[in-house]
Amino acid sequence: MRLTDKFGRAITDLRVSITDRCNYKCVYCRTGNEGAQYADLPMADYLRMVRVLVSMGIEKVRITGGEPLLRKGVVDFVRELSLLRTVDGNSLDTAITTNGHLLADLAQPLKDAGLKRVTVSMDAVDPAKFARITRVENGYQNVTAGIRAARRAGLDPVKVNCVLLRGFNEDQIVEFGKFARDEGVVVRFIEFMPLEEDRVWSPEIVVPLDEILQRMSQFMPLKEIAHASSETARRYIFEDGIGEIGIIAPVSHPFCGHCSRIRITSDGKIRTCLFSQVDHDLYGVMKRGSDADMAAYIEKVVQQKEARHHIGEPDFQKPSRSMVHIGG
Ligand code: SF4
């Protein structure tokens, strides 16, 4: 029996956060002084939770954080995941989302351990602007070195996610287009969502899909290409065929109708949606019971998965956790 919510959406994608610690302090995420709030769990605990979920139909596992490469056992964790098989007997599609600061030394070991894909969060290709956004010195050099190491290791296509904020980095759109072409990576622009630590989000700060397309097309016309319904990004290639960009537009073009995701937080809670108001204590069930108890609990929780987000609507409520404590 595959995991399906009450709207008929098959739940095949899991995002598991292995820490809420981070070595960056990005202005649109760490806007308050919360810092890390939850103790990291032993990797074996995440592995047990993932194993049960894979037996219920999960096919893709994305490792997130905070910054997951801060965890010493991350390479071994990837190796363990690569030994798991989906209900169809296939290997898991494993990916990691990282800020790239530590990637240069870890790209090859992660690839050798069985990692399939890597996504690097990067919000500027101008080193000075990069430093202003991340509030970390010399990060830009580390991240570009990490991206190139990931490509050399064969973690292709390397995706680069850029969160756009009006007044901060919308002037980087065309530069990122050139970066995608020059570096051979897929750059995806993300509309800013109200998931920051305290309240800086407003509709005015969001740079919407249509504006991103309009700005990039002034550099070179784009052609839209097909994307899977459960994929969050709309995909485009430049008219000369060199370079691909994507746009993840949860605010202006929501994609909740095809949502196939649930998340496990670094302290072992299930979140059925980024904007959930509740956490479900899978770790507690795991500590008290069997794998069968966990599966029954997961089945019950998935029936409570939200239909969609309500960003920008009068009844919108900020989620009970900020992004760094959820894990993207
Ligand atoms: S907002 Fe919630 S329901 Fe919508 S796509 Fe994101 S996780 Fe899925």
Protein architecture, described:
Helix 3 (103-113) packs parallel to helix 5 (139-152). The protein has nine helices and eleven strands. It has an eleven-stranded mixed β-sheet, with helices on one face. The radius of gyration is 19 Å and the shape is globular. The protein has one domain (13-326): TIM Barrel (Alpha-Beta Barrel). With 328 residues, it is an alpha/beta fold. The chain has helices at 43-54, 74-83, 103-113, 127-134, 139-152, 173-183, 209-219, 282-288, 291-302, and strands spanning 13-17, 60-64, 93-98, 117-121, 159-164, 186-191, 222-225, 234-238, 244-248, 261-264, 270-271. The model has no long low-confidence stretch (mean pLDDT 94). Iron/sulfur cluster binds at residues 255-256, 259, 261, 273-275, 306, 308-309.
Which characteristics define this entry?
328 residues; alpha/beta; TIM Barrel; 11-stranded mixed sheet; 11 strands; 16% strand; binds iron/sulfur cluster
In the predicted model, the low-confidence regions spanning at least 5 consecutive residues are none
Q: What is the tally of helical segments?
A: 9
Query: Would you tell me which CATH topology applies?
Result: TIM Barrel
Percentage of β-strand residues: 15-25%
Rough outline: globular
State the order of secondary-structure elements, H for helix, E for strand. EHEHEHEHHEHEHEEEEEHH
Q: Report the sheet with the most strands, covering strand number, pairing sense and barrel closure.
A: 11 strands, mixed
Which class best fits the helix and strand makeup?
alpha/beta
Q: Please, how many domains?
A: 1
